[in-house]
Design goal:
Layout (H helix, E strand, L loop, with lengths): L23 H20 L3 E2 L5 E3 L19 E3 L5 E4 L4 H10 L8 E10 L11 E10 L5 H16 L7 E7 H10 L8 H11 L2 H13 L2 E3 L5 E3 L5 H11 L11 H9 L1 H19 L7 E3 L13 E12 L5 E12 L5 H4 L5 E7 H10 L12 E3 L6 H16 L4 E3 L7 H11 L3 E4 L2 H6 L1 E6 H8 L5 H7 L3 E5 L3 H21 L1
Helix pairs in contact: 1-3, 3-9, 4-8, 4-9, 5-6
Catalytic activity: tRNA(His) + L-histidine + ATP = L-histidyl-tRNA(His) + AMP + diphosphate + H(+)
Family: Belongs to the class-II aminoacyl-tRNA synthetase family.
Protein name: Histidine--tRNA ligase
């Protein structure tokens, strides 16, 4: 066969790596969850704002690498005026740009929430996607830590609004100033120690996972795990390690002659004492409002995205066990967090603009809620199906009128659009769609001005009790005849009965 006679090759359908198609069930579950979160934010007086998916790359600040094409970590392209634009990496940097650009028009404090997709140009892996949804709340223009305390209370209320009971979550709170003070106190201040500081913070972050002894090893020479793999430590001496472990255990005062030098360094580092004072104020505020340590807990071991945080940092952690892909029982862990970022808006303004906020990882939280059986339990009801028995103009118009009458009363409905001549296919279609009811009107019914209403859910139940075809036909299973004028009322009655049956089944 010549090249000219070859059939053109079909285009191969392929999903880009690190991205997913979302099903109707997933979308409904997400909408259900987001609606509950939004209700809490609105109750706290926050209003929605929306920024575009694209920002000029330089507005993303720290994510802009020194490269000819700035696409490390972000997806970037050049505009027609040669300016680089990137898909947003998070929802915070775009908010900072929005506030700076509209500073003279907005009312401070500016209290907003935003839900939307963010994009990471990173290597995808199991459970790691290049596009995922976040839900943020921020207060811009409030310098006091009462704004941070309120964020923590709102996070706690959000967890409970989603059905996560007390004891299954905790909001853990620390302060960047405490961590910075610790670094100065042990002699790791200054730019020249940035790398070592990062190693220390990573070690502290493993406290929940490895305990004090494991962290002690990571702060020192290093730690060997069960498999024999060795992780090089931060190389601190015993006094430095002792001081860090006492601070993260929330021990304020270090005693003993050998540690006096660290106490003196602390006194010189005003940030350390200031950080603890701010944590004390947060504790007082949340306790006064009825949020005890079972819900909001001061925890100096919290280490969180320290690139732009300048004060309190907080994390929402789920404390119940789940089984991981290896079959091991593990604590579910963090589903969101945030903190104070007083320098982010200031980059655009040349003046201090205080801000604090937190972000919920929607997909991760949705996984947790499904584990708890708190989400996606209500099966989305399929549409009532108006079947087609005759294809003439008058009959089709009548079927369409039935469909619109149901829709106008808020009932999900559709008229069959496939090959109507094979009626069995219509009922198979209704079954696949999860339709609760089928409406049937042939020539005989039309002549009498009536319709047949078939309760498909009850019919499915009864079908298990009737195994004789003749008995089945005689029983006219779960099928009623009503006047056309009574169609909508009868459908409502059947749907209400079905809903009650579902409720009872849940309660059993």
């Amino acid at each position: 066969m010549s090249d000219k006679q070859k059939k053109p090759q079909k285009l191969k359908a392929r999903l880009p790596r690190g991205f997913v198609d979302r099903s109707a069930a997933d979308i409904h579950a997400t909408n259900e969850m987001v609606a509950k979160i939004r209700e809490v934010y609105e109750r706290y007086g926050f209003d929605p704002v929306e920024t575009p998916l694209f920002e000029y790359t330089d507005a993303l600040g720290k994510f802009l690498p020194d490269a000819d094409r700035p696409n490390e970590g972000v997806f970037s392209l050049q505009d027609d005026d040669d300016q680089w634009m990137s898909l947003r990496y998070d929802l915070t940097a775009p908010l900072a740009r929005h506030v700076a650009e509209n500073f003279n028009e907005i009312q401070l404090p500016f209290r907003t929430y935003r839900a939307g997709y963010v994009f990471r140009n990173e290597k995808p892996g199991p459970g790691r996607f290049r596009q995922f949804m976040q839900f943020d709340a921020d207060t811009v223009g409030a310098p006091g830590v009462q704004a941070d305390a309120e964020m923590c209370m709102m996070m706690a209320d959000t967890m409970e609004a989603l059905g996560i009971k007390r004891g299954d979550y905790v909001i853990r709170v620390n302060n960047r100033k405490v961590l910075d003070g610790v670094m100065e106190a042990i002699g790791l201040g200054g730019e020249e120690n940035a790398g070592r500081r990062l190693n220390v913070l990573r070690a502290i972050d493993k406290l929940d996972k490895f305990g004090p002894e494991g962290v002690k090893l990571l702060l020192g020479e290093g730690r060997k795990d069960e498999s024999g793999d060795f992780t090089k430590g931060a190389g601190l001496d015993e006094r430095q390690i002792s001081f860090i472990l006492k601070v993260v255990a929330n021990e304020r005062f270090v005693d003993g002659e050998e540690e006096m030098a660290f106490n003196d360094a602390n006194k010189q580092s005003g940030g350390f004492a200031e950080g603890f004072a701010e944590l004390d104020l947060i504790r007082s505020l949340v306790t006064s409002a009825g949020y005890g340590p079972d819900r909001i807990k001061i925890d100096p071991s919290v280490v969180r995205g320290l690139e732009y945080y300048t004060g309190p940092v907080y994390e929402a952690e789920l404390t119940f066990d789940v089984t991981n892909e290896k079959g091991e029982k593990v604590v579910f862990g963090s589903v969101g967090g945030g903190g104070r970022y007083d320098g982010l808006v200031s980059r655009f303004m040349g003046q201090p603009v205080p801000a604090t906020g937190f972000s919920i990882g929607v997909s991760r939280l949705m996984t947790a809620l499904k584990n708890l059986g708190k989400l996606g339990q209500d099966e989305v009801l399929g549409p009532v199906l108006v079947t087609v028995m005759d294809g003439d103009v008058e009959s089709m118009g009548r079927y369409q009128r039935f469909t619109q009458a149901l829709r106008s009363e808020g009932i999900r409905a559709e008229m069959y659009q496939g090959n109507w001549k094979k009626f069995g296919n219509q009922l198979k279609y209704a079954d696949r769609r999860g339709s609760p009811i089928a409406i049937i009107q042939g020539g005989d019914e039309r002549a009498e001005g009536v319709v047949q209403i078939k309760d498909l859910i009850e019919g499915k139940r009864l079908s298990g009790e009737i195994d004789d075809n003749a008995a089945w036909r005689e029983a006219r299973v779960a099928q009623e005849t009503v006047a056309e004028a009574d169609l909508v009322a009868k459908v409502k009655e059947i749907l209400a009965a079905q809903a009650e049956d579902r409720r009872r089944a849940k309660d059993i």
